[in-house]
Amino acid sequence: MLYPDLAAAGSLAVALAQCAADNGLNVGEIRTSRDGSSLTYAGVQSRNPRLDGFSVNLGSKQRVFLVAAWGQGVNLTNGSTRELTDLAVAAAAWREGVSLAELQSAAPFLEVGALALAHERGPEHAVAEKWCRYLEPDRYEDLELIRAAYDEPRLRALFPFTSHGSLLFSRCTGWPFSRDVSAIYPLGGGRYAVRHRGEDFSVEPSYTAKEAAAAVVARMPASWGQAIAGTEHDLRDRESR
Question: What is the pTM of this model?
Answer without folding.
Answer: 0.92
